[in-house]
Amino acid sequence: MGASSNSATTWSRILNILEGRPLPVYGDGKNIRDWIYVHDHNAAVWTVMTRGEAGETFNIGGGNEWRNLDLVHALCEAAAAALDRDPAEVKKLITFVADRPGHDHRYAIDCGKLKQRPGWAPSAGFREGLARTVAWYLANPEWIAGIRSGEYTRWLATHYGTGNR
What we know:
The chain is mostly helical. It has eight helices and four strands, in the order αββαβααβαααα. The strands form two sheets. The chain has a two-stranded parallel ribbon with strand order 1-4. The protein is globular, with a radius of gyration of 17 Å. Residues 1-6 have low confidence and may be disordered.
């Protein structure tokens, strides 16, 4: 959600909801992706770093496979609740666009090994993580402004000697 299989898509859709702009959905919206709350993703990375063994490989996933259209509906509902808006009005922003050529129907991930060894589990369910993600964006307009202004590229250049990647 904050970070997910499609984190950039999630934050841009949240911004579109805030601004009343269209929420593009590829094709019929039936493509399936696995979603994970950003803090759970980071916790999984930390778990692997601190409890995994060098050279061992783990898949990080949320165990939350959702069709893109269902995700957008859930996002509209979470944003409407946070903004005290009518979910039906927010859902009117959903706009179907032509699917990309070669667009995969499903991205699947098996994170069973990570849950067994070293024993990680997500802390937030799908809807809770989505609500937290929406709340974070609403509480951090300065971060959004920095992304829109391109300030982050200057920060990257200063700290990493690079610009846009």
